[in-house]
Amino acid sequence: MIVHVHEMSKHPDAVYIGRECSGRGRGPSFTRSQWANPWNWKTLPGGRAEAVALFRRWLAGDLEAAAMLPPGRWPRPTVEDIRRELAGRVLACWCGPGDPCHGHVLAEIANGDPSSAAKQIAVVHPPAFEVVVGDCVNVLNAMPAGTADLVVADPPYNIGIDYGDGRGADELPSYRYAGMVREWMLAIERVLSPAGTLWVVCDSAYGAAFDRAIVEAGLTIRDRGVWHESFGVWRRGLFGKCWRPWFYAVKDRRRFTFNEAAFMVRSRRQEIGDRRANPAGKVRSNVWTFSRVAGTFRERVKPPAGEKPPTQLPLAMVRMVVDGFTNPGDLIVDPFTGTGTTGVAAVQTGRRFVGIELRETWAAVARQRIEAATADVTERRDPHD
Fold first, then answer.
1. DSSP 304
2. I need a labelling partner for 91 at 20 to 30 A (CA). Which of 10, 68, 243, 309 fits?
3. Would you kindly state where each structural domain of the chain is located, as residue ranges?
4. Quick check: 365 and 307 in contact, CB under 8 A?
5. Can you tell me whether residue 103 is helix, strand or coil?
């Protein structure tokens, strides 16, 4: 049942489901963002009807709708969440019973039969690859929980790199950047499957912030390592900068994928001809040497007109991570897609991929690059296999 907020005095157990109700003394309320329609209908061309339609799509796991959310953390509720909190309750909002709004959508799910509820919030199966434009936290929280087998993350470093919005956008106060890292990790933990893995690289200045945020999000760090870039970036009055920390974490310390073959290298015993050497080699150390992708390298993706080049991880290193931490058919998510390197590694190895990118221009570049890799894989596949 839906009532207007002015009628709440007649329904002492009514639950207010709007956003602007804290401290008004109207009884129980759910002011958390997951119970409110985050779209301001007054700013949309289609008005309230468009806002409600977007809300319904978001609850159904539509990533495009999630990408249209205003910046912030918007966790998407499940059928069980809505039923547990709202089934059988009187819901109060500013629209009231005669003007359909997001409250009516919640009421339908909370009080409907199982089949109708399942239709309201359906699991959306992504295609072989998808690149969504939007804030990564919003999109991650709109995805079905527990679906990503691997998250590969190369987030902004907060060291003054101009990604297109000026250097200042990447030079936030340390406490603000640490807060963003915590938001990223919480959203990533939610979307990881029960046996899922996170691999994230960051700048050495903020390694401690990532370490703490990963642990506080509830993940188990299995290893911390170093990416040695083989040649450094020159810095006046300092040593050349040629390493970045990476973190390997899992959701369940007893359940995860670790394919040793992907990490094998020649051992010292093999190099000197020692008969005791394992012919398969040995698992590499946690210091990985891969050349960084400099601007003059053939692998480097050229930026579109008017855009600044983002950081770009070497494909060989990302492909090793994908091979080592997932199996064919698994879903890989990259919250900071950039040039699409993770997506290329995914399609080359038979994995599914969802990328998230804040800027449409770079999302288009990533899609084009991944599509080209997909076409290349298709051409090389034997049709008789």
1. P
2. 68
3. 2-120, 129-380
4. no
5. helix
* Six token digits for residue 344: 């290329």
The whole-angstrom separation of Cα 236 and Cα 252 is 44
Summarised one tens digit per residue, pLDDT across range 93-126 is 766 555 667 777 877 777 775 444 444 444 444 4
CATH node for 129-380 = 3.40.50.150
1, two tokens: 């049942």
Whole-number pLDDT of residue 15: 73
Q: Which pair of structure tokens corresponds to residue 182?
A: 């915590």
Q: Which residues contact 309 (CB under 8 A, 6 or more apart)?
A: 295, 300, 301, 302, 303
Task: Give which of 12, 54, 42 is closest to 29, Cα–Cα.
Answer: 12
Half-sphere CA count of 350, side-chain side, radius 13 A: 7
pLDDT score of 16 more than 90? no
Residue pLDDT, tens place only, 277-294: 888 889 999 999 999 998
160 DSSP assignment: S
Please answer whether residues 63 and 124 qualify as being in contact, where contact means their C-beta atoms are separated by less than 8 angstroms.
yes
Looking at residue 36, what is its pLDDT? 64
* pTM score of the predicted model: 0.74
Torsions phi, psi for 300 (to 5 deg): -65, 130
- Distance of alpha carbon 134 from alpha carbon 302, whole angstroms: 22
The residue behind tokens 């190369």 is 154
Full 3-state SS string of 35-98: HCCCCCHHHCCCHHHHHHHHHHHHHCCCHHHHHCCCCCCCCCCCHHHHHHHHCCCCEEECCCCC
Tell me the C-alpha distance between 291 and 236, whole Å: 22
Residue linked to tokens 């298709």: 378
CA distances, 126 to each of 130, 257, 260, 355, 369 (Å): 7, 22, 28, 11, 18
